[in-house]
Automatic annotation (TrEMBL):
Species this chain originates from: Listeria booriae
Protein name, entry field: Cyclic nucleotide-binding domain-containing protein
Lineage: superkingdom: Bacteria
Lineage: Bacteria, Bacillati, Bacillota, Bacilli, Bacillales
InterPro entries: RmlC-like_jellyroll
Length: 234
């Protein structure tokens, strides 16, 4: 993804006119949905954001937008295909940097470089696979769904597996599982307590998957990416 940032900013004059580098902090709003006015999207260079939807008069956590990912990619549409009342925002989960990119400027570069085009398609396809999986499995046993979401978060955040363990960052909270699963909090916490008793996870002082292999067996999410994050990026 750094190659895309470098490609988009190769010309200082064009980069100054069509891109803007921003710095964000924990709980700072990075991006809001506004189809009519917004002709830009976000490319996360460093750090992590939280995708939140506005439901029932409050903002609810949905998933992470991690380093090297896009936010607001729906603004690449040339015209509004349907009337949408969806409200969402991207809020900083950590400190980081991102690029605000003009959509037409990006499209010109995307079509000029097949690797950028493929990166966008890969990003959309992975999110589609995860969304489709969650929709298909929404009535599955809660124990499986908790395992599914924990693995999904590990994938999205590119968390390394070291000695069969995965350590979650400080910005992760167990309440996020409740929000995503839309299940009673006491049921979700009961599953977490069971997993802790089985020594599959530990919750304090840091949330850690202590036995990744056993958690994976509880899940119905089968992606090769689970194997590809076995070692930390260098």
């Amino acid at each position: 993804m750094l190659a895309i940032c470098e490609f988009l900013t190769a010309s200082p004059e064009l980069a100054k006119e069509y891109t803007k580098k921003i710095t964000f902090h924990d709980n700072e709003i990075i991006h809001k949905y506004d189809y009519v006015k917004n002709n830009q999207f976000i490319l996360i260079e460093k750090g992590v954001g939280k995708l939140e939807f506005y439901r029932k008069r409050r903002w609810e956590f949905e998933t992470f937008i991690a380093q090297d990912e896009f936010a607001g990619i729906e603004n690449l549409l040339n015209s509004q295909k349907y009337e949408c009342s969806m409200k969402y925002r991207i809020v900083g989960a950590s400190e980081g940097t991102a690029f605000l990119v003009n959509k037409n400027f990006f499209l010109d570069h995307m079509y000029a470089d097949p690797t950028i085009f493929h990166t966008v398609l890969e990003h959309i396809a992975l999110r589609h696979v995860l969304t489709a999986h969650n929709f298909r499995e929404k009535k599955s046993p809660l124990k499986q769904r908790v395992a599914d979401i924990l693995l999904e978060f590990a994938i999205i955040n590119s968390l390394p597996i070291l000695d069969n363990q995965v350590s979650f960052p400080d910005y992760f909270a167990e309440s996020m599982l409740v929000s995503v699963l839309r299940a009673p909090s006491h049921h979700v916490f009961a599953i977490l307590e069971f997993l802790e008793e089985q020594q599959i996870i530990s919750r304090l002082p840091q949330f850690i998957i202590r036995d990744f292999a056993r958690l994976k067996r509880l899940s119905n999410l089968h992606l090769a990416l689970l194997e590809n994050i076995a070692t930390p990026a260098i």
